[in-house]
Design brief:
This protein has 375 residues and is of the alpha/beta class. The chain is built from 12 helices and 8 strands. The protein has an 8-stranded mixed sheet, with helices on both faces. β3, α8 (231-243) and β4 form a beta-alpha-beta unit. Bound molecules: S-adenosylmethionine. Residues 131, 143, 180, 205-207, 210-211, 227-230, 233, 254-256, 271-273, 276-277, 281 line the site of S-adenosylmethionine.
Length: 375
């Protein structure tokens, strides 16, 4: 078989129909079923609470115990948990079947001496805790599975589930799906900072480098780098970039301690990195960005928009459930963080910083934050 590396993850007919079922199940559980919890709160839990306390619950912590006694909430939690198990099972079937072929393709790419970009693995990197031993999203083995051998199981599982989620959540497909929003992010950056013409770009926590590819497609003249803690992810990102004929440079590094020179990038971005990291590390990463960003450069981040002041009590409670039970341990810490204050602590001036929200189709939106540093 000689399939291109980027096309290696392809469910067969049976796998595709099981994955479509899991996608629909997730859409139902996270959509209609969760809406019933909102109705339950409005119709029963809130009136009862008002009667007893004369005021609505002020926070998710005050409200949580009201929900926990309800069968509907218990059913929802059980369905979320089970659908997540099914997700890993079904995507895992495809990964198991294609793994050997994917490894062969990646090795052939590694051995090709006409590579366009580069891959710098760092086998001695000590994974920071607690992320090093966390299975984010309950992904079996986590992002760092098989780090010593840099096997491709973890990145292929990640890739497969993003495909499934993207379809189930109703985000748009096509180019956006392939680059996980790389073009969309580039457009958001140019809308906000019209003079942006980056020459050296860094994508922090770039995962399998899909967004990174999109940025290179959008700004072909720029030198584009991506970094991630996960060696297996970096290997997959490199193989996918080479296979797409894109010159990209991937590094296995901690975003908080990169070793790059001061002022060496004029655009530094991240997508859904920060809600998977904790307060201390978040600040260290921002401080590292402050060191790396060139005068006039832009630091631009997209992340989850579920800060408590933006969502109602039932959503706060269900999101918090995901933190405790469904592999999102850092989510609540992130949405409770005052990001503007964190940027300020990292050294970005008031006139440089921004935090904002952006509609993203349907009920979806992005949380945008960062800075354009003074020239
Ligand atoms: C949710 S994934 C997002 C990946 C990619 N940005 C995307 O949009 O698909 C978060 C990534 O951040 C990486 N990560 C978390 N903490 C990191 C850190 N301190 N330094 C570098 N990468 C980190 C994880 O390994 C993971 O690949």
């Amino acid at each position: 078989m000689t399939t291109a590396f980027t096309k290696t993850y392809k469910p067969n007919k049976d796998e595709a129909s099981r994955q479509a079922f899991v996608g629909s199940l997730k859409k139902y559980v996270n959509g209609k079923l969760e809406q019933q919890i909102h109705a339950l709160y409005e119709d029963k839990l809130l009136p009862k609470y008002l009667e007893q306390h004369g005021k609505p619950p002020a926070s998710r912590d005050e409200a949580k115990s009201l929900f926990e006694k309800e069968h509907l909430y218990q059913l929802w939690g059980s369905a979320v948990y089970t659908s997540q198990d099914l997700l890993w099972e079904t995507v895992g079937d495809t990964v198991d079947r294609i793994l050997e072929h994917a490894e062969e393709k990646a090795k052939a790419i590694d051995n090709n001496d006409k590579k366009l970009g580069s891959l710098t693995l760092n086998p001695d990197l000590v994974l920071p805790e607690p992320i090093g031993s966390t299975e984010i999203h309950r992904q079996p083995g986590g992002y760092f599975f098989d780090s010593e051998k840099n096997g491709l199981t973890a990145p292929l599982l990640y890739y497969g589930t993003i495909q499934l989620y993207t379809a189930a959540k109703g985000f748009s497909s096509g180019k956006t799906k392939d680059t996980f929003g790389g073009h969309a992010m580039a457009q958001l950056i140019t809308q906000r900072f019209p003079d942006t013409q980056p020459t050296r770009i860094l994508d922090l926590g770039c995962g399998i480098g899909a967004l990174t590819r999109g940025l290179k497609e959008y700004w072909p003249e720029a030198e584009v780098h991506g970094l991630d803690l996960s060696g297996p992810f970096m290997r997959c990102a490199h193989a996918m970039a080479e296979d797409s004929q894109l010159s990209l440079h991937f590094h296995q590094l901690d975003a908080a301690d990169t070793g790059f020179e001061d002022n060496s990038f004029d655009l530094i971005v991240s997508q859904i990195l920060f809600h998977e990291t904790w307060d201390e590390k978040l600040l260290e990463i921002m401080q590292e960005v402050k060191r790396l960003i060139a005068p006039g450069g832009v630091f631009f981040n997209i992340d989850v928009p579920y800060q408590p002041n933006r969502i109602d009590i039932p959503s706060q409670v269900t999101n918090d459930w995901q933190v405790v039970n469904n592999g999102e341990p850092f989510w609540t810490g992130f949405v409770d963080t005052d990001i503007d204050a964190a940027l300020a602590t990292a050294g970005f001036d008031e006139q440089e910083r921004f935090t904002d929200y952006q509609a993203a189709g349907g009920n979806n939106s992005y949380f945008l934050f960062g800075a354009q540093v003074n020239s």
